[in-house]
From TrEMBL:
Binding-site list for GTP: 107-114, 189-193, 251-254
Keywords: Cell membrane, Cytoplasm, GTP-binding, Hydrolase, Membrane, Nucleotide-binding, Receptor, Transmembrane, Transmembrane helix
Cellular component, GO, one term: cytoplasm
Protein's organism: Nocardioides jejuensis
Membrane topology: Peripheral membrane protein
Biological process, per Gene Ontology: SRP-dependent cotranslational protein targeting to membrane
Domain (SRP54-type proteins GTP-binding): residue spans on this chain: 272-285
Assembly notes: Part of the signal recognition particle protein translocation system, which is composed of SRP and FtsY.
Family: Belongs to the GTP-binding SRP family. FtsY subfamily.
Reactions catalysed: GTP + H2O = GDP + phosphate + H(+)
Molecular-function annotations in GO: GTP binding; GTPase activity; signal recognition particle binding
Protein name (record): Signal recognition particle receptor FtsY
Main location, first listed in the record: membrane
Record localization: Cell membrane; Cytoplasm
Length: 299
């Protein structure tokens, strides 16, 4: 929590502080509520969740109002509700029938997929799980090299194919290596070319199909760059129409003033944010915990 707070400091903790300041005004008049709405929209929370939150705050602070209104406690509760603490945020990494768990990692180039695969492998290895990585982003030699570096650093094998080779064949080989070698988990990094929806659907569909000749995919993680705002939301929608996304990883929250995207993307896709990226370093990936997140926001 301390680290989360530090990482958010100066960025989106401005949202929490701003809200607290506005809600603590002597009179909560219409202008103030408008300022609150503006602040929420600027933080990328999205229109519907903003209205929902403002409505709840208006009701609760009116009823419980007056000087003694426990503004901070009410705001904290309502923000936590907004990110839905009831969602199951654990990664599905346990395969059935002695098969490995299979995690497919998707998202546009630059979102942080390869870095996230590396960071997750590190966490799993620390939990004493055996891991194989599949470098199926064959269109970018740099991505394959980058994953190979992570593999060396973490001490896990990386299955890679020929440059510009078929991503599906690398994915297949990675899954096969995991099944044959009795590994616990295989993480497959995919290409993020968002050329068009049909192309993406073909490519990811094929990757998933060939993997499932070996073992069922247990988790499809969509990696989204938190700094991309509405553009990121459009990408999220396209990916969720192409594959059944089961979890979201929100990267670069350390550099974003827009933590509200957590709320927006969950509402939009109906899928939980499971992990958040808080920097470029190997340890800068954390489980998303609604209460800790809101506490960090409120400072
Ligand atoms: P990919 O193309 O989706 O595989 O993206 P990469 O994993 O190559 O990441 C793109 C850039 O974003 C790299 O410079 C990463 O170091 C950086 N990056 C990834 N995750 C985070 C994060 O959580 N915070 C910050 N600040 N940078 C990140």
């Amino acid at each position: 929590l301390v680290r989360l707070r530090q990482r958010l400091a100066g960025s989106q903790s401005g949202l929490g502080r701003g809200l607290l300041a506005l809600l603590s005004r002597d009179r909560l008049d219409e202008d103030t509520w408008e300022d609150i709405e503006d602040l929420l929209l600027t933080a990328d929370i999205g229109v519907a969740p903003t209205q929902q939150l403002v409505e709840r705050l208006r009701t609760r602070l009116r009823v419980e109002g007056g000087e003694a209104a426990p503004v901070r406690a009410v705001l904290r509760e309502e923000l936590i509700n907004l990110v839905d603490p009831s969602m199951d945020r654990r990664l599905s990494i346990t395969g059935a029938d002695g098969k490995p768990g299979v995690v497919l990692v998707v998202g546009v180039n630059g979102a942080g997929k390869t870095t996230t695969v590396g960071k997750i492998s590190r966490i799993l290895v620390a939990q004493e799980k055996s891991v194989v990585l599949g470098a199926a982003d064959t269109f970018r030699a740099a991505a394959v090299d980058q994953l190979a570096t992570w593999g060396e650093r973490v001490g896990v094998p990386v299955i890679r194919g020929a440059e510009n080779g078929d991503p599906a064949s690398v994915a297949f080989e990675a899954a096969k290596a995991a099944v044959d070698g009795g590994y616990d988990v295989v993480l497959v990094d995919t290409a993020g070319r968002l050329q068009n929806k049909a192309g993406l659907m073909d490519e990811l569909g094929k990757v998933k199909r060939v993997i499932e000749k070996q073992a069922p995919v247990t988790e499809v993680l969509l990696v989204l760059d938190a700094t991309t705002g509405q553009n990121g939301m459009i990408q999220a929608r396209v990916f969720s129409e192409v594959v059944d996304v089961t979890g979201i990883v929100l990267t670069k929250l350390d550099g974003s003033a827009k933590g509200g995207i957590v709320v927006a993307v969950q509402k939009e896709l109906g899928v939980p944010v499971k992990l958040v990226g808080l920097g470029e370093g190997p340890d800068d990936l954390a489980p998303f915990e609604p209460e800790a997140f809101v506490d960090a926001l409120l400072g």
